[in-house]
Predict the 3D structure of the following.
Amino acid sequence: MNSSGLDLLLFVVLPYVAIALFFIGAGFRYFVRPFSVSSLSSQFLENRLHFWAEVPFHYGLLVVLAGHLLAFLFPGTLLLFVSEPLRLFTLEAFALASGLVTLLGVTMIIGRRATNAKVLAISTSMDWVLYLLLFIQISSGIWVAIFHSWGSFWFASVLTPYMRSLFAFDPAFLPVISLPLMAKLHLICGVCILALLPFTRLMHVLVAPLQYLFRKPQVVRWYSNTN
């Protein structure tokens, strides 16, 4: 397959396949198998490292996703905001710090799952695929933030129009081809995560009550009948 054919496959066909899998898979699990929508938390098996891994991962990821969403919804406002150097530097530094916190969290999650025998025993193949994709996604995003600075500008001016063109069923993917390799890897990884999300434990984020983020910590005790 030549480069133009590969680009068409990666930046046009793959996104539409991912979107279709996302909606079909999410709809099936939510309406047909609603009780399967769970984080399948292993907190009761090991809680100390679980806490220190999940907190930075979840909060860091929420900040990063919120930034991407705002850049997609309000590109003009973002470009106006970062037109002032101090605001641009502050935003870029904050985004990088959030990415590093998220990477720390997912690294600790992977380490905990690989080294704790009880947690390892309940881990599935899909868990490892998901965590690998998340690790590559977050790492590539940090790489882009460090070595291809001012992502605020080119996200709003290149990626936002591209993603909007997909939803308009008139994909304008040619500008994406000129992006750095790690930026394209970051994009492709994100699309793959979208496709797999309904088939993983991450499905719970679509229905999770947000108030859980602000509730007081709860103690989980496991009782068994020894009689």
Summary: The mean pLDDT is 84. Residues 85-115 form the longest helix (31 residues). The chain has nine helices and no strands. Residues 96 and 167 are 28 Å apart (CA to CA).
